[in-house]
Here is the input.
Amino acid sequence: MPKIKTPITELFFHHLDRIPHKEGSFETLRNSFRAVASFYGFEKISYSLFDDPRVYQPLLKAGLMAERQPIILKSAAGPDMIVRSSAPLSAIRSYRSHKMNDGPQPVKVFCEGEVFFSATRGDQPIVRRDEATLVMAGEEGAIAEAQIVQVLWKSLFDMGIPA
Here is the structure.
């Protein structure tokens, strides 16, 4: 029997899907994360899937994004865009661009969303991940770290994952 070739677009994109039988687990985790983060005073922040690549040039030049090569979309008609490759970087960029450092500190935000990047190794040209991130800016030290660990631990515990 001859082998049927899979179209290249299917090979390129099929691994980016999240199928229904896995969606329920993700929704349970998201709900737990949101509730616990809100309880500890973290506020939800949302940001665009696309951004200005010039913002990330210093990180790229320093090699700090080597593991997650961002996807940069070149455009002849408009500005180039970078596809979100890291939720924490997007949150910090938002913190700086909206001058949140001028307000009360610490700023405690949580964000969740998809990130896309080009893997430096592996067989998938584009990697898609769901990230849930806690960012506490304007506060350093063990208390900030402990609070973030507490939110993560409590979210997992609420899902029934033992410590």
